[in-house]
Write a structure and sequence with these properties.
By secondary structure, the chain is α+β, with helices and mostly antiparallel strands. Helix content is 36%, strand content 19%. The protein is built from 10 helices and 9 strands. Strands 1, 2, 3, 4, 5, 6 and 7 form a 7-stranded mixed beta sheet that branches. A two-stranded antiparallel sheet has the order 8-9. The radius of gyration is 19 Å and the shape is globular.
Length: 307
């Protein structure tokens, strides 16, 4: 079972959560109200999604006093969905340098099944991205969470990027197709929506032209976390350990408790020194390879390079 570690000083993720809490101080109450209606007068969405995007839209509307949000407020929905969900898990996933570099050097993730991201170990998690950049700007990390699109009954992987230039929201559609096709489907639909609204987004065009360069490194880190056997630092506080497809846990009064503290998950602590030694000896950074795993082939396993 995965383990956890409490930390004292506040992280970027915590500071952003506090900022969102100041803007929308009652969002947790809105979440609880909608969870209580799940499967009653609201649809019964999958348990791997804490709250679908329309629920977060309603939460923003309630506190901002809008029946329909103006375009400049839509970004708040994406931010609140990622950070509001993260409030109940508060997991920060930290890669050791050697493992991170080897994962980024591993090709062919785009050919893997997109459904592997349904194995997120928490409803929302924050992944640190040491030394990585997004379109030339520093990338501090990103949140990843799953969304259930009610109208289309569509499974989505949502990313919220924490960049030097601010936040950026991305979405991939998950299904019986590859990671690359998942991104293409999302990009095409987003561009069509923007075209209908008469809105042009330069970063969307750039993303469509060079998706692998910008997004695949993020998905490589996420895929390792979702893989069949990630190496995760283990501690003894099993009461707060993450579980795959985290179950619904409500208190006796129907409330969903937020995570009591930030949990740091260290990946590759024993493997990374071996990979770093390989680089120091003049071998350069070598990537491993991805293997399909599981009975249905919708899971994967990362095989490190020979050390």
């Amino acid at each position: 079972m995965f383990g956890v570690q409490a930390i004292q000083e506040k992280t970027r993720a915590e500071l952003y959560l506090e900022e969102v809490g100041r803007l929308y101080p009652r969002f947790s109450l809105a979440v609880e109200r909608m969870l209580a209606r799940r499967g009653r007068d609201l649809p019964l969405w999958p348990s791997w999604c804490l709250l679908p995007m329309p629920g977060w839209y309603a939460a923003v509307c309630d506190e901002s006093g809008h029946r329909k949000l103006p375009p400049e407020k839509l970004k708040d929905v994406y931010w609140l969905a990622a950070l509001g969900t993260w409030n109940y898990t508060k997991g920060i996933w930290r890669f050791e340098q050697g493992l991170q570099e080897a994962l980024l050097a591993t090709p062919h993730l785009n050919e893997m099944p997109s459904e592997l991201f349904l194995k997120l170990p928490e409803w929302s998690l924050y992944i640190e991205t040491r030394g990585m950049r997004w379109q030339g700007f520093q990338l501090y990390g990103f949140w990843a969470h799953l969304n259930w699109e009610l109208s289309e009954e569509r499974r989505e992987l949502r990313l919220l990027l924490d960049t030097e230039q601010g936040m950026l929201s991305l979405a991939l559609f998950l299904g019986e197709w590859t990671v690359e096709e998942a991104a293409e489907r999302a990009i095409v639909e987003r561009l069509q929506l923007y075209a209908k609204a008469g809105v042009q987004w330069a970063w969307e065009v750039f993303l469509k032209m060079d998706f692998s360069k910008e997004v695949m490194p993020l998905l490589a880190l996420l895929a390792y976390i979702c893989s069949a056997s990630p190496e995760v630092e283990c501690f003894e506080k099993t009461a707060y350990a993450a579980k795959y497809l985290r179950p619904w846990v409500l208190e006796g009064n129907g409330r969903l408790p937020c995570a009591p503290f930030v949990q740091v998950w260290v990946l590759g602590k024993s493997l990374s020194p071996q990979l770093c030694t390989q680089v120091a000896e003049g071998g350069g950074v070598k990537g491993g390879h991805w293997l399909l795993a599981g009975v249905s082939g919708n899971s994967c396993r990362w095989i490190p390079p020979q050390t």
